[in-house]
Design brief:
By secondary structure, the protein is an alpha/beta fold. 30% of the residues lie in helices and 25% in strands. The protein has 12 helices and 26 strands. It has a 5-stranded parallel sheet with strand order 4-3-2-8-21, with helices on one face. The chain has a 5-stranded parallel sheet with strand order 10-17-11-12-13, with helices on one face. Helix 1 links the parallel strand 2 and strand 3. Helix 1 packs parallel to helix 7, helix 3 packs across helix 4 and helix 3 runs parallel beside helix 5.
């Protein structure tokens, strides 16, 4: 029976990054994965959805290119070829993760881990012991108890990534990030898409002004907010609208995207403290059991791949004596729709709810030279900065428009460093670049 400095259970972005970091330190590390290296993110989440969205964007740009002087004819979208591209990307990244493990001398065990005790696990009959154990088992799509949820036309976000035809009419139940991204994808490749959301607005983490603008920009999608799904039929969805009236929308495919639940099955027997949201951890990713850590979706603190990676780093540093703490105030999020949206820090409404006195300013993206040159004056987009009214410290930056996801890291730096608006005014941004919009809004404050 081999003993390791660290055993990682789950090779998603939390687990494999943690194993890589510990391996770089010269520690003896084992990572266990029951499916494919990369976890949900690489295989059924971030990477495949962005691969397909990229294909849809190319198709959209080809159709809309005449205004830029580029004329295309006989433009078509081939789903099987897009799926093949998606799979090639996935397999390349899987191989890359295997290479990282080999490079950092991390042992890999493929199979399902079963706990024998707090520090001992079994994989396909082989027993391993670890001085430290990291649980990075991720999450799975939540299937609500809706009558008809088991019908053949119903899919989860994992199922729809293997679809072999473009649905003529797709109903998406849930207007969160996953639902809106798939709505953008399929509405741009030919599906008639309807989104049914129980809350008054889509994308609850987003500034409400931005959420409304997102709905306006996604013109091909029919959004039904403030509505409750009552039943899924063999050919449609029955829901109660915001006025309490019962309605039916036809569909040949239904996507359930109402959230995810942590994969905690079997962990209760260890004596771990598990709440409804997942395994309970402190700011250093420690559980209530000495030497046992939990990172990523399984702890429910922040269900984002980059959060999981950072949690893994914090846990590894903590277990090997390096001071580190997980901070959540500057974690960015992004929605890879058409147009993209991204944010970091608090919204204006969140500031009000917390009793923080703030000042805000916004600017249309089309006021930016590069954005105008590449997208035109009719393209929607917005940048908003939220700052403390007394100190001018920037508390939130919110973006909607193309390449938002590639700019939001600067907001993370600004918020993490507690920069003031006058500090950002002194930073030299490249011109022309869309990122200049952040500096322009700081001058507007």
């Amino acid at each position: 029976m081999e003993t390791y400095d660290l055993i990682v259970i789950g090779a998603g972005p939390g687990g494999y990054v943690a194993a890589e970091r510990a391996g770089e330190m010269g520690k003896k590390v084992l990572i266990i994965e029951k499916a494919h290296m990369g976890g949900v993110c690489t295989n059924w989440g971030c990477i495949p959805t962005k691969s397909l969205l990229n294909s849809a964007k190319h198709y959209h740009y080809a159709q809309d290119s005449a205004k830029f002087g580029v004329h295309c004819s006989d433009v078509s979208f081939n789903l099987s070829e897009a799926m093949a591209w998606k799979q090639e990307v996935i397999e390349t990244l899987r191989a890359g993760i295997h290479f990282l493990m080999k490079k950092n001398k991390v042992d890999v065990a493929l199979g399902e881990a079963k706990f024998i005790s707090r520090d001992t696990v079994e994989v396909d009959g082989t027993v391993y012991t670890g001085k430290n154990i990291m649980i990075a088992t991720g999450s799975s799509p939540f299937v609500p108890p809706i009558p008809g949820a088991q019908n053949d036309i119903v899919m989860t976000s994992k199922d729809i990534l293997s679809i072999d035809r473009i649905p003529e009419r797709l109903v998406v139940i849930g207007g969160g990030v996953i639902g809106v991204e798939f709505s953008s994808l399929f509405s741009n490749i030919g599906s008639e898409v309807t989104v049914i959301e129980m809350m008054p607005e889509i994308l609850p983490m987003m500034d409400i002004e931005f959420a409304k603008l997102m709905r306006r920009e996604m013109k091909q999608v029919k959004f039904k907010t403030g509505c409750k799904v009552e039943e899924i039929l063999a050919d449609g969805v029955v829901y109660t609208d915001a006025k309490g009236k019962r309605q039916t929308v036809n569909a040949d495919a239904v996507l359930l995207s109402v959230g995810r639940r942590p994969n905690t099955a079997g962990l209760e027997e260890l004596g771990l403290d598990i709440a409804r949201g997942g395994v309970v951890v402190d700011e250093k990713m420690r559980t209530n059991l000495p030497g046992v850590y939990a990172v990523g979706d399984v702890n429910g603190r922040s269900l984002l791949a980059h959060s999981a990676s950072r949690m893994g780093e914090v846990a590894v540093n903590t277990m090997f004596g390096i001071e580190d703490t997980m901070r959540y105030n500057a974690i960015p999020w992004a929605v890879y729709t058409m147009p993209e949206a991204a944010g970091c820090g608090i919204t204006e409404q969140e500031a009000k709810d917390k009793g923080i006195k703030v000042k805000c300013a916004s600017a249309q993206m089309r006021s930016n030279g590069r954005f105008l040159a590449e997208h035109g004056k009719r393209a929607g987009g917005l940048c908003k900065v939220v700052a403390d009214a007394d100190t001018n410290v920037i508390l939130g930056i919110h973006l909607l428009g193309a390449v938002s996801s590639e700019m939001i890291h600067s907001a993370s730096v600004i918020i993490e460093a507690e920069l003031r608006t006058q500090d950002v005014k002194e930073i030299v941004f490249p011109h022309p670049s869309v990122s200049e919009i952040i500096k322009d809004v700081c001058f507007a404050l």
